[in-house]
């Protein structure tokens, strides 16, 4: 259930428009507070969701080897500036005890985690920790690469700069050879 207060967002957007010197009553802006409220409700819809829920869907398959879903596109909102950052997530894990999850659930966990005011580091660790807790695999390695609009369109203004975050859990914490294997699969076209 969404706890987003649409009316409050509308009022706030109207105030921002006034504060920057715009006329919220002019034709082009009259519907803008409503549109922005709807947009925020959508972009922050992950706030009341728990990515762990998705990993309740499991299948029994004796595959105690690598599973990697790479190039999962995502976009999120930087919690410092409320502007987007976007890129790709790559999720690798090694199942244990014949417990594998649905491949789409890995992408769903990215989506849910990204749809709230976020830091790239926190998206990365939340996904890794959710998988560890729910699937109890031998290990998880999550890599996220993203461009932050707050570094592109304002402030330091460095378009093209990419931030890479990686979180290793379980056997990936110690095993750099296994981590390198994932990184080479990620680079493969
Ligand atoms: N660690 C981390 N930092 C982020 C992320 N998104 C944005 N930031 C950074 O958050 C920082 C906020 O710094 P502040 O000095 O408080 O704010 P600011 O004056 O707007 O900073 P500048 O961006 O340097 O102009 C900036 O360095 C941003 O680049 C993120 O996902 N992770
Ligand atoms: Zn930012």
UniProtKB/TrEMBL annotation:
Domain GTP cyclohydrolase I, residue spans: 9-186
Annotated GO CC locations: cytoplasm
The keyword Oxidoreductase is assigned to this record: no
Reaction catalysis annotation: GTP + H2O = 7,8-dihydroneopterin 3'-triphosphate + formate + H(+)
InterPro entries: GTP-CH-I_C/QueF, GTP-CH-I_N, GTP_CycHdrlase_I, GTP_CycHdrlase_I_CS, GTP_CycHdrlase_I_dom
Keyword Signal: no
Keywords on record: GTP-binding, Hydrolase, Metal-binding, Nucleotide-binding, One-carbon metabolism, Zinc
SUPFAM superfamilies: Tetrahydrobiopterin biosynthesis enzymes-like
Source taxon at top rank: Bacteria
GO annotation, biological process: one-carbon metabolic process; tetrahydrobiopterin biosynthetic process; tetrahydrofolate biosynthetic process
GO molecular function, one term: GTP cyclohydrolase I activity
A Pfam entry, by short name: GTP_cyclohydroI
Pathway the protein acts in: Cofactor biosynthesis; 7,8-dihydroneopterin triphosphate biosynthesis; 7,8-dihydroneopterin triphosphate from GTP: step 1/1
Residues at which Zn(2+) binds: 78, 81, 150
The enzyme's E.C. designation: 3.5.4.16
UniProt record similarity statement: Belongs to the GTP cyclohydrolase I family.
Assembly and interaction partners: Homopolymer.
Protein's name in the database: GTP cyclohydrolase 1
Organism of this sequence: Paenisporosarcina antarctica
Taxonomic path: Bacteria, Bacillati, Bacillota, Bacilli, Bacillales
